[in-house]
Write a structure and sequence with these properties.
By secondary structure, the chain is of the alpha/beta class. It has a single domain, classed as P-loop containing nucleotide triphosphate hydrolases (Rossmann fold), CATH 3.40.50.300. A seven-stranded mixed beta sheet has the order 3-4-2-5-1-6-7, sandwiched between helices. It is built from ten helices and seven strands.
Length: 269
């Protein structure tokens, strides 16, 4: 099971859109895919149409007060109307977790432990993260095999990217191992000098960490979101769909290479 965190410490850069787009494309390709909404604003949950207040949420994975007992993760996972695409929703109560949990030990690994139980059930897990560093983002980064950082191609978005990468360095020290990252340029408008200049700066400053795929400004992506339809089921989003398919191919390549290398080691043994 591969787990990817989609995160940036700036809002409005396309985190939820990217999570749903990649998840729907994986599911359409036959992969058992789970989307987890780690953001108390619950944008992903609203997009997919599974509200955490009704169905239980990420909040219920944490024992938050007194003798509260976390709920089993499988009871919180719900199927969607799309084949092989499931969701673990968010709820507004999640915003209180940092205050309730305080300095309690072990709270950064709650999600990792829950996902270990789900490993037989899913091929991919995608985590839509909040834009702030706290217990929810720490859990997401600790549980992930890869960090995907959607970054709007405008100058103001670069500050959020820098904050995200500083947070990543801190988490990597705690993990004791690196977390591979892919920076994804989003909301790109080739007609504007600002977008072109920002993309050039991203590539110059971060090199191979920046995806070859560039997500364009595509009104059909917004139309799909407004309709609550994942991109894989919205053929009108041709430019956006093509870009996300290219991005997915890039993200899956390291996992395929690792699988080949593991098979080669097993054969040699």
């Amino acid at each position: 099971m591969q787990t990817w965190a989609i995160a940036n410490q700036k809002g409005g850069v396309g985190k939820t859109t990217t999570t749903v787009a990649l998840g729907s494309l994986l599911a359409a390709a036959g992969e058992r895919t789970l989307l987890i909404d780690m953001d108390p604003h619950a944008s992903l949950s609203g997009y997919i149409g599974v509200e955490g207040g009704t169905h239980g949420s990420v909040y219920d994975l944490f024992g938050t007060s007194g003798n509260a007992i976390p709920l089993p993760v499988r009871t919180l996972v719900h199927a969607t109307r799309w084949d092989r695409l499931s969701v673990l929703p968010a709820s507004a109560a999640m915003i209180t977790l940092d205050r309730q949990l305080g300095t309690r030990a072990g709270q950064g690994l709650v999600l990792s432990q829950a996902l270990a139980e789900l490993a037989p059930d899913f091929d991919h897990v995608l985590l839509d993260c909040p834009p702030t560093l706290g217990v929810l983002m720490v859990n997401a980064l600790a549980a992930s095999d890869r960090l995907v950082v959607p970054t709007q191609t405008e100058a103001l978005a670069l500050a959020g990217l820098e904050r995200m990468l500083r947070s990543l360095s801190m988490i990597e020290r705690s993990r004791g191992r690196p977390l591979p990252r892919t920076i994804v340029p989003t909301l790109y408008d080739a007609r504007t000098h600002a977008s072109r200049a920002c993309l050039a700066q991203l590539r110059e400053q971060y090199g191979d960490s920046v995806s070859e795929a560039v997500i364009p400004t595509d009104t059909q992506i917004r139309e799909a979101s407004a309709a609550g339809i994942p991109l894989a089921s919205w053929p009108a989003a041709k430019r956006g769909g093509m870009a996300y398919r290219q991005l997915l191919d890039e993200l899956r390549l390291p996992a395929r290479e690792a699988s080949v290398a593991s098979s080669a080691r097993d054969a040699a043994a």
